Amino acid sequence: MKKKSSQTLILILCAVVVIQTIFIAALLRKQKKPTVLIRKAKVAIVIDDWGYNLKHIDFIKETRFPINISVLPFLTYSTQIANEAEKNNLEVIVHLPLEPQNWRKVNVEKKVILSTMEKEEILKILNDSFKSVPYANGVSNHMGSKATEDKNLMGIIFSEMKKKKMYFLDSFVTPHTICEELARDMNLKFSQRSVFLDNEADSEYINGQLMSLLDYALKNGEAIGIGHDRDLTLKVIKEFLPKINKDKFEIVFVSDLVR
What we know:
Blueprint: H1 2-30, E1 41-50, H2 57-62, E2 68-71, H3 78-87, E3 91-98, H4 119-132, E4 136-143, H5 151-163, E5 167-170, H6 179-186, E6 190-192, E7 195-196, H7 203-220, E8 222-228, H8 231-240, E9 249-251
Parallel strand pairs: 1-2, 1-8, 1-9, 2-3, 3-4, 4-5, 5-6, 7-8
Helix pairs in contact: 4-5, 5-6, 7-8
């Protein structure tokens, strides 16, 4: 009799366990699966050398992508281009002419900042540049292979930029640039060019560089490509951007990538 009672009790306990298991499994099925956040690779495209003319102002008006418009100061159309970019919700950058190596042998822009200048003259050109290119969030170097190796010169520029809460985009024209380290030491927001897009005036080459930009972004999480205000460059970019896989990549402003 006791043996039967024990067997019955065991059967009841087993049944309870089975019922509980079924109940828990049903609850789990009803619960929503946790959302898995997939981080897209971020890509910023900067177009340098705006301000010489208005040939491509329609690109600024018509693009639906967050393109960065990098404008040379003191040119005939510098201010107008910056105003148009702001009007169309694009990011404006001052493309600041800085001293290259052997600058006397190079065709530099007017009012280029030189390492031999006194602080007052550097600041005068810098602040006049900001007036010439309104609405700018940041500064990038035009040329500057010598200037961006000069800690004293860049320190003067960075100090003024920091007051205005601007970032610096290093076009990375020399492997000996001190800008990243200096920006970190001065707590200035900073970013650096990853790929030049149009060193060759060839559509196949530019397409290849854009693909390289995407590859760089996939490997590093983000990338910045720099091209120029040229017919072919803008044509290729205009055709390329809509084809980018939106599930893998996000086109952003440089200000979204600075640290």
